[in-house]
């Protein structure tokens, strides 16, 4: 029977090797997740600038980084649940859903994007909030009908999310994201209402002016 010291030394070496593998995976995945989030931010910026080619290029970069992070973390479920992968998946879902909302294409679900459901739901909430910027741009261009349409989309997303009442541990903090979206929807509704009323008033004044 080996001496206790030798036994402990052998077990300690195994533990160190496992921890080294875990640490290496964490560091690599953190870097890839940061790359994902950065690329998604640039993609959303390109979407608002109406540059679909640049947006698609940035989303492709984000997808590549995200898939690398997912692959690295696959053997380490505890690390995968630590939070940073959720954030990266959420940002990727947000970028894809924002593009779909603004372009009018079909919405990709969590299975299509290969992200966790909680990340997708939070990405959906943040994508609906991102619509506000595009809505305001359309109002400034005098496109009130498009502004009303976008507001309707935001309201539909909120109406869906407010019905999902599960603990934050399951939804990844969706309640906070939904509350934040509600505030954005309320401000956007006020902006659209004011613009529509001003437009109608201007049209009435112009119609009443003598020819």
Write a concise keyword list for the protein shown above.
211 residues; mainly alpha; Methane Monooxygenase Hydroxylase, Chain G, domain 1; 83% helix
Task: Walk me through what this model shows.
The chain contains 9 helices and no strands. The protein is mainly alpha-helical. It has 2 domains: 1-115, Methane Monooxygenase Hydroxylase, Chain G, domain 1; 116-211, Methane Monooxygenase Hydroxylase, Chain G, domain 1 (Up-down Bundle), CATH 1.20.58.2140. It is elongated and about 105 Å long. The protein starts with a helix and ends with a helix. The mean pLDDT is 92.
Number of domains: 2
Mean pLDDT: 92
Distance between the termini: 109 Å
Helix fraction, binned, reads over 70%
Q: Please, how many helices? A: 9
Structural class: mainly alpha
This entry's quaternary arrangement is single chain
Structural shape = elongated
**What is the CATH topology classification name of the largest domain?**
Methane Monooxygenase Hydroxylase, Chain G, domain 1
Radius of gyration, CA atoms, in whole angstroms: 24 Å
Helix-strand pattern, N to C?
HHHHHHHHH
Strand fraction band?
A: under 5%
Give the biggest beta sheet.
none
CATH top level class name of the largest domain? Mainly Alpha
Question: Low-confidence stretches at least 5 residues in length (pLDDT < 50)?
Answer: none
CATH architectural label of the largest domain: Up-down Bundle
Instruction: Please provide the count of β strands.
Output: 0
């Amino acid at each position: 029977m080996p001496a206790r010291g030798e036994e402990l030394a052998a077990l300690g070496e195994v533990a160190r090797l496992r921890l080294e593998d875990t640490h290496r995976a964490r560091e690599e995945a953190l870097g890839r997740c940061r790359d994902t989030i950065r690329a998604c931010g640039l993609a959303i910026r390109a979407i608002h600038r109406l540059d679909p080619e640049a947006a698609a290029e940035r989303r492709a970069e984000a997808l590549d980084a995200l898939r690398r992070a997912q692959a690295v973390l696959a053997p380490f479920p505890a690390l995968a649940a630590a939070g940073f992968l959720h954030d990266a998946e959420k940002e990727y879902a947000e970028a894809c859903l924002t593009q779909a909302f603004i372009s009018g294409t079909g919405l990709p679900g969590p299975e299509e994007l290969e992200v966790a459901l909680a990340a997708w739901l939070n990405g959906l909430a943040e994508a609906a909030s991102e619509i506000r910027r595009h809505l305001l741009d359309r109002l400034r261009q005098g496109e009130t009908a498009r502004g009303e349409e976008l507001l309707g989309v935001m309201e539909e997303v909120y109406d869906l999310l407010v019905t999902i009442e599960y603990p934050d541990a399951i939804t990844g903090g969706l309640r906070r994201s939904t509350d934040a979206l509600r505030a954005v929807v309320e401000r956007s509704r006020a902006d659209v209402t004011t613009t529509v009323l001003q437009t109608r008033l201007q049209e009435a004044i112009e119609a009443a002016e003598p020819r």
